[in-house]
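Quick one, probably user error.
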């Protein structure tokens, strides 16, 4: 379960130079994996303050965000008129099968148990693909920040964990895993190195996972 986080403070972090760089790098990687078309629908699971929901909507998607935290949703509603928000649990999504083109869960899955049930629900309500943003245990970010600040109480996973979660879905889906935020300091050196390292390396602090239905 996600511990209490002040919505305004959480959102303010994305306006710091380091937070803005991390948010931009993560979103760019997610969009590179999804490759959606303008007008597609997306369910953002565990949307929190709506930071990524808004970015998806600004990219031309029709976005619905869900979160169990009423305070987070109130803040999200105050920041955006082009995203529909509602209170709901990732473990029991109140939508019909294949209601959306895509579903996303960006770091929210790190606070949800069991993650496999949330993934199954996201698979159920999406037509094409699910994208996950996870905290990578095999990264410099883990050693620098785990169990501190906003990361306190989060579960850190690795590519092996992800593949084990997805074993029950293996006959019907294909998976693509990338990573970003290799040097989490956010200074000029970190940003320069980030541009040079291939996202296929599994050592970035942010794991992006695409789960796509086989055609």
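Nope, works fine. Designed sequence:
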């Amino acid at each position: 379960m996600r511990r209490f986080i002040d919505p305004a403070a959480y959102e303010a972090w994305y306006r710091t130079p380091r937070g803005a760089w991390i948010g931009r790098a993560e979103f760019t990687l997610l969009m590179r994996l999804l490759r959606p078309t303008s007008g597609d629908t997306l369910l953002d699971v565990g949307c929190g303050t709506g930071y990524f929901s808004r970015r998806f909507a600004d990219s031309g998607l029709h976005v619905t965000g869900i979160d169990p935290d009423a305070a987070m949703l109130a803040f999200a509603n105050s920041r955006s008129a082009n995203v529909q928000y509602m209170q709901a649990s990732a473990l029991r999504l109140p939508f019909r099968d294949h209601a959306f083109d895509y579903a996303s869960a960006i770091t929210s899955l790190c606070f949800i148990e069991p993650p496999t049930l949330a993934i199954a629900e996201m698979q159920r309500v999406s037509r094409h693909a699910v994208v996950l943003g996870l905290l990578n245990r095999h990264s410099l970010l883990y050693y620098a920040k785990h169990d501190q600040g906003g990361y306190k109480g989060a579960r850190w996973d690795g590519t092996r964990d992800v593949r084990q979660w997805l074993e029950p879905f293996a006959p019907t889906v294909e998976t693509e895993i990338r990573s970003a935020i290799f040097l989490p300091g956010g200074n000029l050196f970190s940003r320069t190195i980030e541009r040079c390292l291939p996202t296929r390396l599994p050592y970035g602090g942010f794991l992006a996972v695409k789960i796509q239905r086989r055609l």
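Strands lie at 41-45, 62-67, 83-87, 100-106, 126-135, 173-180, 206-213.
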